[in-house]
Amino acid sequence: MSNPVLVEVQRGALTESRHRGSLAVVDADGATVLALGDVAAPVYPRSAVKPLQALPLIESGAADRFGFGDEELALACASHGGEPAHVAVAARMLARAGLDVDALECGTHWPSHQPSAQALARSGGAPSALHNNCSGKHAGFLCVACAAGVDHHGYVGARHPVQREVKAAIDSLTGIGVSEDACGIDGCSIPTWAVPLAALAHAFARFGSGQGLAPERAKAAARLRAAIAAQPYFVAGTGRFCSEIMRLLGVRALVKTGAEGVYCAALPVEGLGIALKCDDGGTRAAEVTMAAAIARFLPLPDEERAVLDRFVRPTLRNWNGVEVGGLRPVAPLAG
Amino acid sequence: MSNPVLVEVQRGALTESRHRGSLAVVDADGATVLALGDVAAPVYPRSAVKPLQALPLIESGAADRFGFGDEELALACASHGGEPAHVAVAARMLARAGLDVDALECGTHWPSHQPSAQALARSGGAPSALHNNCSGKHAGFLCVACAAGVDHHGYVGARHPVQREVKAAIDSLTGIGVSEDACGIDGCSIPTWAVPLAALAHAFARFGSGQGLAPERAKAAARLRAAIAAQPYFVAGTGRFCSEIMRLLGVRALVKTGAEGVYCAALPVEGLGIALKCDDGGTRAAEVTMAAAIARFLPLPDEERAVLDRFVRPTLRNWNGVEVGGLRPVAPLAG
Description:
The structure is a homodimer of 335-residue chains.
Chain A: E1 5-11, E2 14-27, E3 32-36, E4 42-43, H1 50-53, H2 55-59, H3 62-65, H4 70-76, H5 84-96, H6 114-122, H7 135-148, H8 161-174, E5 183-185, E6 191-193, E7 195-196, H9 197-209, H10 215-230, H11 241-249, E8 254-258, E9 262-267, E10 272-278, H12 283-297, H13 302-312, E11 315-317, E12 323-329
Antiparallel strand pairs in A: 1-2, 1-12, 2-3, 2-10, 4-7, 5-6, 8-9, 9-10, 11-12
């Protein structure tokens, strides 16, 4: 089965590149509102489920015990750019639990936010695990382990109690018990369990609305949603799609990117969840697809729609700033 | 028409992503040896034709007049990483023509070679147009203009005499007069004319063998091939696919990457040209496809084949260095 072309890249008079993919829009009852391509095949959700992976941080009582506010909770759901403010909050989360950077098992990379990487180099510094885009999530995992009084070493392993809690939360929200075999290792070394897009979208519809969730879980989801809406900068960073979209739409859209072209979203007011994957793993096409899906399903005043449209049809500029082309969603996505 | 899947990305037990594309392998007579997908559709060749774009630098006499050796000629064909040695040679080329960085019209970006970018930041520096991956090609264009005594200002424009020479060379090698309408603007602001993959592969078969070319053009192509084979580092840089493949194979393979998943190659001994495009523009899949095509059409001793196979089936490692998956070519590419 061949997934449809969802996004085209134009340059001059020609379509230069094409991205195929699949997309599921599902309501909190599990009814499919839109399905493009194969939405039943298992997909590694990667970082797109970080908001779901953060549920144990609240449900375990760890977030309260360590006095976490919106910044910490947003960073626990983040794929951040390693900007100084991101690094500072990650360090603060660890310190509250009596830990430091050495406890992180996510690995080290330079900040993806280029000005921050350049400033770090200019100061003679080098990156630490705090700069890893997942450091907030990992700090959250460590806090869950500490609050539960379990040894945090090896917390990234699929058999560690923290990852069992995380898997249980995702299984419960998606409504399916994901097979232990359908497991990959993520960039930050934690397990990523493959889930069909339709089930992922269903999970985000529930996460966004609270519908069908136990009261404590619905409360935890609402608290994470509020934190993310209040501090979208801490979920990604300067100029990043997730942060910009949520700065524009606030509580009306929760969006989260994952590696290899995955994107998930909740539209709480509409009671909808969205999950998509670009076949080839391309982030640029996943962003356009998500923007187009939001534009189609979220009623917006003209002014906000005009801002959103810049993400639906982004322009491409060359090194001299000359517009040379752009991306655009294609039917049937454009609706 | 849907191009076939050429490359799969594995993680754990699942195929996580898939790249479709098209590939043409053609001999110097224009006979198709292998065609996968649509090889008749026009494709912007982008930087993959830099070796062809450098022909006027030699044929005009500019390379001799300015005393260019292998390093300069290889850099004129390069998409380099902005490493210090690349920048030094680009500056030297300009100086020979009595010009400096201010004459470059390619725009500025940070070195793509990350250690070089970090070292530049650490020194308190900032990038110039010399760090642009195309600075060697642009220095070559400027030298052509200077040698011909034409005003170099605006040399990136499609109507400038330098670009007319470049287009004439490509038209001649591909054997087709590319329509003026099938023109996009490249990342470095020069025109990129769309050519079918089959014609691009034919051009590289001719460029690699000299067959069917006028004696002066065959000589110019041979000189560029020799320069590239002698100095593959200057065509890309440390750890880059083009440089590593040519360091391994020397005069037996000339390979050149282009943006948006284009790759071209000549296998001079076999008399073959290769041109491919990954539909989605993904470089990682274009590299695997090129490596697989070389492995299929170039007879190699076991030891070299084992080295090449690391590019045919590269592994993916996460931030802790753990192997989490890999890329692999799929039938019919694997042959």
